[in-house]
Amino acid sequence: MKLSSDYSDINVAFINMPLRESAMPTVVPEGPLILAEILRIRGANVSIIDLNAYRIQDDDSQRQGLVNGRHMNCDEVENLINDHLNYYGDQHLIALSGKITTLKWQQIVAKIIKRLQPSSFLVSGNGLATEIKSGLFNWIPELDAIGRSEGDEVILSIINDAKLIFEIGIDRAINNAKLSPYYIGSINGKHRFIYEGDRPKNLDNIPTAALDLLEKDVHGINILEKYIQVPVWGLAANNSSATPFHMKRSLTTVSSRGCPYACAFCYRGSQGERNYGMRSVNHLVNQINNYVESYKIDFIGFVDDNFAVDKRRIQVLPEFFKKNNINIKWGTHTRMDEADERANYMADAGCIYIGFGAESASEHTITQMKKGGHILKNGLKSVKVNGNEYKFPVTMMDAVNNCIKTNIHANCTWIMGYPGEGLEHLKTSIAFILWQQENITKNISMSSEDYLTALNSVNKSVFTATAYPGTELWNVVRPKLKKHFNISFTQNGLPECDKNFYKYVLELDDATKVLNDKNNEPVYYGNMKLEEFLTARDHVDNGNLHEILSM
Which domains does the chain have, with CATH numbers? Predict the structure, then answer.
């Protein structure tokens, strides 16, 4: 199908779904805003409704104990969408964006959209659509299409189909064979499309996100300023990060996509799977300068998981940043084995924060997670914590120590309850957290304010092992999924998108909680007794990690 080059008469609205009500919004919806800019460059009239940006402070939020405020309720969401559509007019395309955790909200919003503008072409993209695939049409029948994986190139096919259907109707478009090859026919009595996105050959050719679309919503509220004023990382962000420093004005972006590794608990399908690609340092420099000049930020967070995979890019960071007068502080995520000499280059370029997906300090559990090849390559070292001896991976210890030497704050995230994990394995992870606290405070006077700041800057939150569809962990615990949640599987091994699987997906809203099964009983995948695990989980939730070492 020949793609149009003129979209000046096309209206497109992106809607970003709410995430984690207990946390303040910190990460701008860069994906939808990049797609918005791609369309806007071609003349389309683009707008965005960012439902995740709102936190309402009222009696209701206080009753729920939501100190940061609550999400909008359904009526408030409908009123906002209605006001937005009244202002911007009939939309040819309305695109929903959200992770798998946003299923409930996408159902609500899809009903609102089809009630207010039934002729718009409604598509769901990002994590939910990528993981659930065509089964999503069973749960959100209002959808015309889903967009899987990366949308930078396939968005043009989507908008052309939407324009054609708006102009001549779906039946004529089918009969005239003018639709894209992504039309798959009728499902449940409705014409459907499945758009398969792919990686652009050169990420430097992708425009930066249209942040200005967030500068004023339909009611005149500066949504972007809300993001800027909330720290990307730190205790105030309430996102399993902690820092000894503060930032006043921060923004986020992604410097790379995909992941060359294959951790068993992680799903990377919505960002290129194992097809790793990255933007050049020049491209990053131009974006940083633009953000600093436009928004006066003092910190930028590169929120991709694998910033430091390519040593060549890391080595030229200091030179390029200094040559272009990049003086801003920044942070990112890397693997712990990547915090070698790369930490020195990153620190020289202004990095003060690295988030590590440590997940476990136990040799046994790391191996089960398929993380052992890199983390365990330097062996183990015996360390005494609280009078007991534990064996920690040398690579993990080196990562923390290298960060301390270079004045980079190391933030580790953790998982408990992984298949095969026993109490002794969990104790090793907890001991590592306490060792990190000891290590980061050993040269600070216990009577000083700096000591408490450093002590509290070590992350003590722990996620619960959760089986997300499409991961290796999902396949490992399949018998338990059948037993506890009545999830059925096709001959190809895919879950049947019935009411049981639907109920399961609805529960995937908080990675720290323990899921309850069909009988409202907690489900646990590790090797501890259930009561033992729940006790340990309570100790974590109450901040009493040392109690776990005494169990």
Answer: 11-196 (3.40.50.2300), 231-464 (3.80.30.20), 478-524 (no CATH)
